[in-house]
Amino acid sequence: MSIGSRSLARVIRATAWALLASGLFASGATAGLLEVVTTAGSASGVPDTEVRDALVGPISTTSTTQFGSPPGQSSSFGTSSAAADYGHLAVFGSGATYGSVSAPALTSDVTSTASWRDSFTVLPTDLSIIGSAAHGIALVGLTGTTSVSVGSPLGSLASAHVAYTVTVNLTGGSGAQSGVLLQTPGEAPQFSGDPLPLVLAIPFDVALGSPVDVFVQLTEVGDTNVSAGFGGNNTFDGDFSHSLRWGGISEMRDDQGNLINFSVTSDSGFDYSKPVPEPTSAGLLSLEALFVLGLVGIRLTLGVAAPR
After folding, report:
1. In whole angstroms, how far apart are CA 177 and each of 3, 115, 249, 263?
2. Does residue 308 form part of some domain?
3. What is the rounded CA–CA span in Å between residue 145 and residue 270?
4. Where are the beta strands (DSSP E) in 105-144?
5. How far apart are alpha carbons 109 and 62 in whole angstroms?
6. The dihedral of CA 293, 205, 216, 282: what is its sign?
7. C-alpha 237: how far from its chain's center?
8. 64 vs 226 pLDDT, higher one
9. In the chain, helix, strand, coil percent, each to 5?
């Protein structure tokens, strides 16, 4: 099963967000910036868009268009929201198209993006090694859920799709992971990419006492549609509202592999040496356990022995 042109366009848009973010990062944009972007469009293809810079907290935008009578018999809607704080990002997006066989073609699509940009400095306890090369491992974790449902019959061009992308750029290291869930008529949902929950364990190099730029972004895109003359109830949902959390800097080592005692300062005041605590009421699989697994995995990859 291949991704349809509309779903492919949404994947391309998500990739474009990541490339744009990387470009801003590379251009040396001001550290200490929070940004959220949400878009929800339905039916007419004209989206509502809202952008805020240096914002702590959520913003959301919703677009709804209805056809036919009574309302809801043939309609489409989409909603998206995003929230950003240093060390924590959350996005949410859902949409649906409800069409009768006499309804026109209907569409619903959303984009939700949250990011933070900052700069931190690793300071060794032993000040005599300021300026020396060091090698750290940064951890970022993501939890969430995705679902799609397509009730349109075989022969229609309907689909439902939701995708997520995590991008992390550090001075001296970077990484990205993503996943896509897609369903078409008569088929079971198909997933490709990096499954949830996930942890990015990112090695990075630094000169002790020198600033490290950091950019972290979470993007969700989703869409669904009903073909004219076919009808059907089609939905998508991506819930990352608890969601992406910084997992701390697990360790710093010198060129000989010796552990370095260190502390971290940052432009924002956020302590990058420590993980962001999980919400106790979230009921999600512990990211702390996944951070440990991610660290063990990267040590094995690098051939570095874990401390006893």
Report:
1. 19, 15, 19, 28
2. no
3. 28
4. 106-124, 133-142
5. 11
6. positive
7. 14
8. 226
9. 15, 55, 30
Please count the residues of the chain: 308
Domain-embedded: residue 146: yes
Q: Two tokens at 85?
A: 């704080």
Half-sphere exposure of 148 (CA within 13 A, CB side): 27
Q: How many domains does the chain have?
A: 1
Q: Quote the pTM value.
A: 0.79
Residue 254 one-letter amino acid: D
- Pairwise CA distance, residues 177 & 169, whole Å: 12
Could you count the other beta carbons within 10 Å of the beta carbon of residue 19? 11
With beta carbons less than 8 A apart as the criterion, state whether 295 and 137 touch. yes
- Distance (Å, whole) CA 217 – CA 171: 15
User: Distance between CA 303 and CA 34 in Å, rounded?
Assistant: 36
How many other C-beta atoms lie within 10 A of the C-beta of residue 258?
A: 8
Model confidence over 85-118: pLDDT tens digits? 889 998 888 888 887 787 778 888 888 888 888 9
Cα of first residue to Cα of last residue in the chain, in angstroms, is 48
Q: What is the Rg, in whole angstroms, of the alpha carbon atoms belonging to the chain?
A: 22
The domain of 180 spans 5-302
Specify if 307 maps to a domain.
no
Amino acid (one-letter) located at 258: N
